[in-house]
C-alpha cells in the first residue's frame, strides 16, 4: 500500500486546495479552501470561464456578494468530486466582528442551500479570534457547522471546544515556521522533527486535551511543510494536505502506523475546562508565536481577498465592455 492509502486507514484525508480539477486524483474524503487558494485557482486559465460566468450572471451585485458567490461556486464544484464536506471561508476582515461574521456565514450557507446542498456538507471557516469563536457558538446552535482556522494555541482550542465548534484547524507548518525563524542559526532540523516538531507537539497537546475532557470537536491538522509532520500526526481525526504532499504520499510505500488514537495518555498538567474572555486574551497575549501567527494569518487572508476583489472588478469591467 502507498503511504496515502495507509494514512486513509487512520485519518480522514482532506485536500487543501481550490483546484477541483486536481482533487479527484487523490480521492480525498473532504476539501478545504481559503482566500489564498481560491485566488491562486482563479488565476489559472482553466478556471477563467468560472469567474467570468459568475461575474456575468451577478455583475450588478456588490463586491462582497460577488466574492461569496465565487467562493460558493468553487465549493459546489469541489463537492462534485468529494463525498464529504467542503470548508468555505468568511471574509477575514470580519474576524473581530461577531455579528457581521454570523450574518456573512448565514448568507454563504443560504447560497449552498439554494443550490441543493445540505448543511451537513458545509463547514463555515472562521478565524479563531474571540469574536470569531463567539460567532461560531451562535452558528452551531443554528445548525451551521464551523471550521475554526488559524489555531495556534491550546487556549484557542479550549474556547472552540467550549463553544461546541464542529472542527478546528491547528496550523502545524506555520507554528514550525515561527520557531525555526526564532531559533535562527541555532535551529537543528533533526532535533525538531517528527514528534519533536513544535507544530506536531501543539496538535498533540490539543488532541490530549480534547480526548481527556470528552470534547467532540474534531481536530484537522493543517499547513504541513513535510511528510514527517503528517506521519507524526497519523490518527488525528482529519489532516488537510496540499496536492504536492499528497503526491509524495502517493509515491511512497514506506510503512505508516497510527500515532494518535481515541484514548489520550493521562496528563495532569493540562488545564481545566472553561476559559472566559479576559483569561483567553491574556493567555493568547502571553504566547508570542500564537499572537503573531494569528495576526499574520488574518492579514494574509485579507490581502488575498482584496486581490481577488481586484480580479473580479477587472472581469466585471470586461463584461461591461463586451455587453
Task: Please give a structural write-up.
- With 323 residues, the chain is α/β, with parallel strands linked by helices.
- It has one domain: Aldolase class I (TIM Barrel).
- Helix content is 54%, strand content 11%.
- It contains 14 helices and 8 strands.
- The protein has an 8-stranded parallel β-barrel, surrounded by 8 helices.
- The radius of gyration is 19 Å and the shape is globular.
- The chain starts with a helix and ends with a helix.
Helical segment tally? 14
CATH architecture: Alpha-Beta Barrel
> Roughly what fraction of the amino acids lie in strands?
5-15%
CATH superfamily: Aldolase class I
Q: Remind me, CATH topology?
A: TIM Barrel
Q: How many distinct folded domains? A: 1
Query: Which structural category fits the helices and strands?
Result: alpha/beta
Mean pLDDT: 94
* Number of DSSP-assigned strands: 8
As laid out across the biggest beta sheet, the strand order is 1-2-3-4-5-6-7-8
> Rg, please?
19 Å
Helix content: 40-55%
| Beginning-to-end CA distance, first to last residue | 54 Å
SSE pattern, N- to C-terminal: HEHEHHHEHEHEHEHHEHEHHH
CATH classification class: Alpha Beta
Low-confidence stretches: none
Main pleated-sheet profile: 8 strands, parallel, barrel
Outline, from the CA principal axes?
Answer: globular
Secondary-structure topology with pairs:
Blueprint: H1 3-10, E1 12-16, H2 20-23, E2 30-32, H3 35-42, H4 48-58, H5 63-79, E3 86-89, H6 98-114, E4 122-127, H7 130-141, E5 146-151, H8 154-162, E6 167-170, H9 172-183, H10 198-213, E7 218-221, H11 227-232, E8 238-241, H12 243-251, H13 277-286, H14 288-322
Parallel strand pairs: 1-2, 1-8, 2-3, 3-4, 4-5, 5-6, 6-7, 7-8
